[in-house]
Description:
It comes from Aquitalea aquatica. Keywords: Membrane, Transmembrane, Transmembrane helix. This is DUF1700 domain-containing protein. Pfam families: HAAS. This protein has about 280 residues and is of the alpha+beta class. Residues about 140-150 and about 150-155 have low confidence and may be disordered. A hairpin with a 2-residue loop joins β3 and β4. It starts with a helix and ends with a helix. It folds into two domains: about 5-110 and about 250-275, no CATH class; about 145-220, no CATH class. Strands 1-2-3-4-5-6 form a six-stranded antiparallel sheet, with no helix packed on it. Helices cover about 60% and strands about 15% of the residues.
Amino acid sequence: MNQQEFISQLQEALSRLPESERQDIVADYQEYFRDGLAAGRSEADIAAGLGDPRQLARELTARHHIARWESRKSVGNLLAVVGAIAGLGVLNFLLAIPFLFYLWLLTMAALAATGILIGGVVLFGTLACNELFGWPAMHETRDMRAVWSAFEQGGPVGNIHIRGSRGEKVDVVRDASSGKTSINIQSSDGTVSLERNASDVTGQLRIEDKEGQVNIDALDWGFSRKGAWIASVLMLLLGGGGLFLCYLLARWTWRGLLAYGRYQLGILDKARGLDG
């Protein structure tokens, strides 16, 4: 291969680089050929020492993208570095596939953590404003244990029985001996039964109609303002911690990718030096 063929293939392979940088690279290799010819070497010998111009262009492209990434970190530059390193060899290309999947997972995790953090900030801020200024107005969901308060004060046992004209029944009953409280609603369409023992933190719900039956044996009685405060703090900690972890993983990934790219280029430079 003579100088003209080598330079022509090199220019074609460098077509993705900016024109000014491509011209600088071509000028450097033209000067390299002139120096070699002045030293008594042939064009074919010089070209053979430089290796395949297409492979050389891939290495130069990788160096270009690594330099761009170091000067300006962005998603586009990062993907360009991954693509350039993948072009250095088959093994690098195969490694790039799981690496891109890892980047996708890291991005999704960062977005999820950001969403949780924003939700925590909004919830915490809303609760704080309501506590300090009474705005925005909030209708707190009362603890459902209040439903049973009339039957759990230790006073006289109160039972309520309501009957409708079409056979509807509503019974609210508390058993003084066991402390069990129940609400039963029955109509022609079905039955709803809600009950709680005195020692239970949760209750049981039964819904039955002509088509089937639903049983819920661990019914939570409500979500209090205290629970909202706890949830907001947990969201802040989870979202902030997750985002910080994603940031650390991203930094380690960037450094590892650049180190691997430089390592690969160093191996190629060493091999070219031995060939020359």
